[in-house]
Amino acid sequence: MSRVFRQTGLTAVLAVLILVALIFAITLGESVFSMALYAEALTHLQSGPAEVLWQVRAPRAVAALMVGAALGLSGAVMQGLLRNPLADPGVLGVSATAALGAAFAIVMGAAAIPGTVEIAAMIGATVAGVLLILFSARVRAPEALILFGVALSSFAGAATALIFNLSPSPIATAEVMSWLMGSVQNRSWIDVAWVTPAVLVSAGFAVLAAPGLRLLSLGEETAATSGLPMMRLRLFALIAATVAAGAAVAVAGVIGFVGLAAPHLVRAAVRGDPGRLLLPSALAGGLMLVVADLAARLTPTDQELKLGVFTALVGAPLFALIAWRAAREWRL
User: Fold this and answer.
1) Torsion sign across C-alpha atoms 127, 129, 132, 136
2) How many domains does the chain have?
């Protein structure tokens, strides 16, 4: 019972923090509003201040929330599936293949058609997901799945570099580079509508996979003798991680370290239970990205920092700390 209360309290705290972060993300920005302008935005929805708040800042903040939730959920599922605290959405190559699909669409000039880049990214993520599912059906060892994912990620990265090399237009190359850095700048409610259903679908599959993730934390032999359909549960976990990561890349480009860090921020509160880790990780990921995007917007630079660059600058030291702590545990 204490675990339930602890998780409920954690969820409530994260929800309140997200609400506060969203309020700041909507009300703060490069344009400083007076109280009169805020009142006008709330009372006259067709006014200029209302346009800035509800059609520029609000969808950007909500898009950051949903993308962060997708990355946090995907990271929690992957860390449970692979039984590896260093796993994140980039480990299995889903992010890289989604980025490859989007880069190909941009270079081919399809970015002018609304939704094309997003669809191309989702196709890339789907291809990666299918390959991972086929591989996991034949090889169950998590180490082998990690190696296959690394190979898939390396191939997709090389193919993306080849697209850069063969790009016929420097403008298209710059667009691809800008997109790969990751950002929720200029995102609209349409982008929110893209990512939200994918997060809900992946959350459903993650909940179905939760019993299997919990058993895997006890060891492969325990999971094999549990009587549960572990193959099906692994499949659900892969689908959840693939859909979430693919949707995040489709809407915001490549944003690293959120999927790695979010589960670690809340793991102690659920005592490492992979099943109970899913919702808090999604909320923590959403909170992280809303705060990171707000910080990137408010940082006084001539050109706004890309969100993927900002999260990498903050996340890289965290990754090193996690790796150092893991190495100490392995030595013990």
Assistant:
1) negative
2) 1
Which tokens in the block code for residue 187? Answer: 């995102």
| One-letter amino acid for residue 118 of the chain | E
CA dihedral 181, 187, 191, 195 (to 10 degrees): 50
CATH number at residue 125: 1.10.3470.10
Model confidence, pTM = 0.89
Query: What is the spatial distance between Cα 108 and Cα 104, in angstroms, rounded to a whole number?
Result: 6
Q: What are the structure tokens assigned to 32, written together? A: 């400083």
User: Could you list the residue range(s) of the whole structural domain that residue 144 is in?
Assistant: 2-331
- The per-residue pLDDT string of the chain (332 residues; one tens digit each, 9 = 90 and over) reads 456 666 788 889 999 999 999 999 999 887 778 788 888 888 887 888 888 889 999 999 999 999 999 999 999 998 888 887 777 877 788 889 999 998 888 888 777 787 788 889 889 988 988 888 888 778 777 778 888 888 999 999 899 888 878 777 777 778 888 878 888 988 899 999 989 999 999 999 999 999 888 887 776 666 666 667 778 888 899 899 989 998 999 899 889 888 888 898 888 788 768 888 999 999 999 999 999 999 888 887 777 778 888 887 777 777 677 667 666 654 54
Quickly list DSSP for 74-114: HHHHHHHHHT-TT--TTTTTHHHHHHHHHHHHHHTTGGGST
